[in-house]
Design goal:
The structure holds 3 protein chains of 3 kinds.
Chain A: H1 3-39, E1 43-46, E2 49-53, H2 57-64, H3 68-102, H4 108-116, H5 123-133, H6 140-147, H7 162-174, H8 176-187, H9 191-199, H10 204-215, H11 217-232, H12 236-242, H13 255-264, H14 274-305
Antiparallel strand pairs in A: 1-2
Chain B: H1 2-17, E1 29-34, H2 40-53, E2 58-63, H3 66-78, E3 85-89, H4 91-99, H5 119-124, E4 126-127, E5 132-133, E6 136-137, E7 139-148, H6 149-155, H7 163-175, E8 179-181, H8 188-212, H9 221-231, H10 246-254, E9 258-264, H11 268-274, E10 280-283, E11 297-300, E12 302-306, H12 313-323, H13 326-336, E13 339-340, H14 350-358, E14 363-364, H15 366-370, H16 378-391, H17 396-407
Parallel strand pairs in B: 1-2, 1-3, 8-9, 11-14
Antiparallel strand pairs in B: 3-12, 4-5, 6-12, 7-9, 7-10, 7-11, 7-13
Helix pairs in contact in B: 2-13, 8-9, 8-16, 9-17, 16-17
Chain C: H1 2-31, H2 36-41, H3 53-61, H4 64-95, H5 101-111, H6 120-129, H7 136-160, H8 165-172, H9 177-188, H10 190-206, H11 209-214, H12 223-232, H13 238-269
Helix pairs in contact in C: 3-13, 4-7, 4-10, 4-12, 5-7, 7-10, 8-9, 10-13, 12-13
The chains are: A mainly alpha, B alpha/beta, C mainly alpha.
């Protein structure tokens, strides 16, 4: 054996050693149980036990049969709204906030700590807190609006405002995360580049759009991907604020709630059906995986080009 | 090789963290699971009495959050675990577990206590496919209206018994600054309760008979008209009622801000605990017109069953048999403030005695009793529909059609040719 | 002059943002000292007296310290294990070319998207087979498996963007691969490690779903699990609810504030080079 092949083999062993612990745990405690659960998607359930293989019938039911098809599309539509709104408001604001923090004005460190503070709280705490604040009768939001003469409104009870209220709560909760990722990305650009652009007469707006935006592309990739996955797996915040059925009248129903409801039912209305619930989970996973893979490929290429 | 090493590592690590024993009870100890967290003290007391009469058997009480109970129990049962004795749901919820073979059928020869239960209570815990009984029914629940007598008196309003008076009473209370009805529509299952309370007197028992005989569905004019009456009540609900959830409604009523609470007899106990000074009464919903009959709605709400995988099945069975005796049922009904399913365990409480009296002309809480066996359940469809109808985004006719179409998926008489 | 004006405007906006961020938290803290009537009638007012009864109720009615200890063990061990395993994997994926590199990366990425709640039944059976049901270790392993993908995703992205010169020169000088990882790459990866740590610590600390299903023994319950059960009994007493929320949020908030200097510096300063 030449020293070269020896070295190659040693490097191969090293790589295996690096990957093994993570892969073993991931396969053992995510992949295997998940495959076992996904098998359920192809079975009819009679009560809690599988009653026989039915091929794609569960998929057919949730995608094409009333009333399930309409419920599925409604939930998917809400997820899409959540994603777009979070990208625009939460992440857009985070981008501007990162730029403001980049200026290292007095107190910027304190602001960094503050903006990230809500991120460390759980969705249950945040959801509960905002639910109480948005309360139609006793909530402080209505009390504050009352001071400037705006009539109280049941924010979470109105079909037109419920989803928006939960999205804004999510933005409040998570704003710090994309902000700091963008800030980390901006700080890597280096003062010289920014100085040079300034000397060329670029104002803040031009700087943000022409210089910084392309250079924070890796940060954007991370933020986009995590927001996308987070939006389409959204569960805890709407669960706490709107309940398992996406109250009122299903206007806050999203795929995560819907799949859980199909699988485990609810104490006060629905029955459990692991078959349909698992089929919904399979669809969600395939959708997320395909879109993320395509988006990632595109975003990576964009990073390279820039 | 990997598997072996992993396993060894896992075992070593497990040893350091301490092995688990708790999913299996110790000898002579029967575990009991329920979602009734708030009843812990009552059950602990009563189980102590059980140990006194059954020396050598103790009961370990574990309560879980109601909204996660289904998930926890079905996961544990699928894994061959779970408590020896389980608090289970009735009707479709019971069937889901029984069909999977997770529960021990109760043989009337070996559980003679079953004769303490009336036929409709037994039916609520029976698997229709094999006709066997799988659980001992705990309590019957009645939907009606809880009222704060003091608020009515101070406003000088008489307690209404028919629809026209009811609407007038609402106006009179509101004029005095009192919210007539505490309920909101934000909690879906409460919408079903609200709906059943007011529609059943308009519908009458004949409608239920017709639906079950396949002669009528929920697009029937009687049903759509009854739904329409619910809309007349919107002025009586709190401001912003679409955002008022169950705990808020309870709060409004127990603190004396609202005069009426539309709900089940199971609310009596909690309201008395929340505000002992509350001058409570439980009345039937208003009759359609003076002189016409009215009806409360009724169902049996839960029961006790033995886990088929129990490692203490004899002790577990002894506990379930005891749960079907007046020895448990009378003090339990008194302390929990409900009406026992047992025919020989009357509640000495005068208010609950009144509820038991109203039960004599009760109608079934129809979606739970008859249309929660298959998906989409009648409850799923109705709760969504009523919530939207009260918010003004669906009409009564549209709700009736949605419910009928959904149930038609498995209920042949509703299927259109 | 216009520059100064602009900076003042930015300062003002930052201040408004800080108020929006802090106000709900302050409200939560204040309300935990109030009675129901005080919360309803004067939501913004300071509590008339420093009444600890709500907080004491939470403290006495739950095994608070026990739950807190369990949460610390479970979260600490999980995050540590996630950082170690995902750094190793991310390093391999980011710095070496080998067959199936991209496929393995996508496999990890797929782990980010799985709805693991719906696999709870097979997971339960598996833990039972391994005798890990109702143990903290079982819970930790599940959390590590759940957190790994995001760790690998963040760290791979970061490690990939690091320049290769230092690594190459070390290699030429004959440093071992392990040494390059430990002494050269790891210090550079600190910001990403901090992000991955927080990103995972928060959901693990706060999760109540898996403990509810996997942990039955009271002495092994986690804080959110214990408080979820407790708060179910008090859903109309807002003062107690706010007290419960405050106590649930307090430990992680204190840890965050205590470490915030390191955290923020770690997360952003890596760029200063």
């Amino acid at each position: 054996m030449t020293t070269r092949t020896v070295r190659r083999w040693r490097q191969g062993g090293w790589i295996v050693l690096l990957l093994a612990p993570a892969l073993i745990i991931l396969v053992g405690f995510v992949t295997l149980p998940l495959l076992a659960a996904l098998r359920y998607a192809f079975y009819a359930f009679d009560g809690l036990a599988p009653a026989g293989f039915v091929g794609l019938a569960n998929f057919q039911t949730i995608l094409f049969e009333a009333p399930y098809a309409a419920w599925t599309m409604r939930a998917l539509g809400h997820n899409a709204i959540v994603f777009v709104c979070l990208m625009l408001f939460q992440n857009g604001l985070a981008y501007l906030l990162a730029f403001a923090l980049l200026k290292t004005l007095p107190g910027h460190r304190l602001h960094q700590v503050i903006v990230f503070l809500p991120v460390v709280l759980s969705a249950v705490i945040v959801g509960f807190l905002w639910k109480l604040m948005l309360h139609p009768l006793f909530g402080v939001i209505n009390a504050a609006l009352g001071l400037i003469g705006i009539a109280p409104h049941p924010w979470l009870g109105d079909e037109n405002t419920a989803l928006g209220a939960i999205i804004l709560t999510n933005a409040w909760h998570w704003l710090g995360f994309p902000a700091l990722i963008f800030l980390a990305g901006m700080q890597r650009i280096g003062a010289e580049t920014l100085e040079a652009a300034r000397l060329d007469g670029a104002g803040d707006w031009v700087l943000l759009r022409r210089i910084i935006w392309p250079l924070v592309a890796p940060a954007t990739t991370i933020v986009f991907t995590l927001t996308f996955i987070g939006s389409f797996n959204w569960f805890e915040l709407p669960y706490v604020m709107a309940g398992l059925t996406g109250s009122p009248g299903g206007t806050t129903d999203v795929l995560g709630l819907y799949a859980y409801r199909l699988a485990f039912g609810s104490a006060t209305a629905g029955l459990q059906d692991f078959g349909r619930g698992s089929a919904m989970a399979v669809l969600m996973f395939v959708f997320l995986a395909v879109v993320s893979a395509v988006a990632l490929k595109f975003l990576r290429r964009r990073e390279m080009e820039i | 090789m990997f598997a072996k090493t992993t396993r060894r590592l896992l075992l070593a690590a497990t040893a350091t963290f301490g092995m688990a024993m708790s999913f299996a009870a110790q000898a002579g100890e029967v575990t009991f699971w329920t979602w009734r967290q708030e009843d812990k003290a009552v059950y602990t007391d009563l189980f102590a009495a059980f140990t006194k009469s059954h020396p050598g058997i103790t009961v370990k009480f574990e309560a879980f959050p109601n909204e996660n109970y289904n998930t926890i129990v079905s996961t544990a049962l699928a894994g061959g675990k779970g408590a020896d004795v389980l608090h289970v749901r009735a009707y479709g919820g019971l069937e889901a577990m029984a069909k999977a073979g997770y529960l021990v059928p109760l043989d009337p020869a070996k559980v003679p206590e079953l004769k303490n239960l009336p036929a409709d209570a037994l039916a609520s815990e029976t698997l229709r496919a094999d006709g066997k009984i799988y659980a001992v029914s705990l309590a019957g629940q009645t939907v009606g209206i809880l009222i704060n007598k003091d608020l009515f008196a101070s406003a000088g309003v008489a307690v209404p018994t028919n629809w026209a008076d009811f609407l007038a009473a609402g106006k009179a209370l509101k004029a005095k600054g009192i919210t007539p009805i505490a309920n909101g529509t934000a909690t879906p299952w409460m919408d079903a309760v609200f709906h059943s309370a007011f529609t059943n007197p308009f519908l009458g028992p004949q409608f239920v008979t017709d639906v079950l005989a396949g002669k009528a569905n929920f697009e029937d004019k009687r049903y759509v008209d009854a739904l329409g009456h619910l809309l007349e009540l919107r002025d009586m609900l709190p401001a912003g009622f679409t955002g008022v959830d169950y705990p808020t409604a309870q709060q409004l009523f127990s603190t004396g801000r609202a005069a009426m609470f539309v709900g089940g007899s199971f609310e009596i106990g909690p309201f008395r605990r929340a505000n002992p000074k509350l001058n409570l009464d439980f009345i039937a919903p208003p009759a359609p017109a003076a002189g016409q009959p009215t009806h409360v709605s009724r169902w049996f709400d839960s029961g006790f069953a033995v886990n088929a995988k129990s490692t203490h099945s004899e002790d577990a069975m002894a506990l379930v048999r005891w749960l079907a005796t007046p020895e448990f049922a009378i003090p339990a009904a008194e302390k929990l403030g409900n009406i026992s399913s047992l025919s020989n365990a009357a509640n000495p409480d005068p208010l609950l005695g009144k509820v038991a009296e109203l039960n004599k002309t009760a109608m079934p809480y129809i979606m739970l009793v008859h249309f929660r066996y298959e998906s989409p359940t009648g409850s799923d469809l109705l709760q969504d529909g009523v919530q939207k109808m009260m918010a003004g985004t669906m009409t009564p006719a549209e709700v009736g059609k949605m419910v009928t179409d959904g149930i038609a998926k498995y209920y042949v008489p509703f299927q259109k040719k | 002059m216009p520059e100064r004006l602009k900076n003042s405007a930015i300062q003002l906006l930052l201040a408004i943002n800080a108020i929006i961020m802090l106000f709900p938290l302050g409200l939560m803290l204040l309300s935990s000292f109030k009675s129901n009537a005080e919360i309803f009638d004067s939501p913004f007012a300071l509590p008339p007296t420093l009444d600890f009864s709500n907080l004491l109720r939470v403290w006495h009615d739950t095994e608070f310290l026990q739950y807190l200890g369990n949460s610390l063990i479970v979260t600490g061990a999980s995050v540590l294990a996630i950082l170690v395993t995902s750094t190793l994997a991310a390093y391999a994926l980011a710095r070496y070319r080998f067959p199936f590199n991209n496929a393995i990366f996508l496999f990890f990425l797929a782990g980010l998207m799985v709805p693991l709640k719906l696999a709870v039944i097979p997971l339960f059976i598996e833990l039972d087979t391994l005798h890990l049901l109702d143990t903290r270790l079982g819970l930790i392993l599940v959390y590590v498996a759940m957190g790994l993908p995001s760790g690998v995703f963040i760290l791979t992205g970061f490690l990939r963007s690091l320049p290769g010169e230092m690594e190459e020169s070390a290699r030429i000088e004959g440093a071992s691969e392990a040494r390059i990882l430990w002494q050269i790459m790891l210090p550079l990866a600190r910001p990403a490690l901090v992000i991955a740590a927080i990103q995972n610590a928060v959901p693990i600390w706060n999760d109540f779903f898996f403990p509810l299903i996997f942990i039955a023994t009271d002495s092994r319950k986690t804080l959110p699990q214990g408080l979820t059960v407790f708060m179910g009994e008090y859903n109309t007493d807002w003062g107690v609810l706010f007290a419960g929320l405050t106590l649930a949020a307090l430990p992680i908030t204190i840890v965050y504030i205590a470490l915030s200097r390191h955290f923020i510096a770690g997360m952003t300063a890596g760029a200063v080079k």
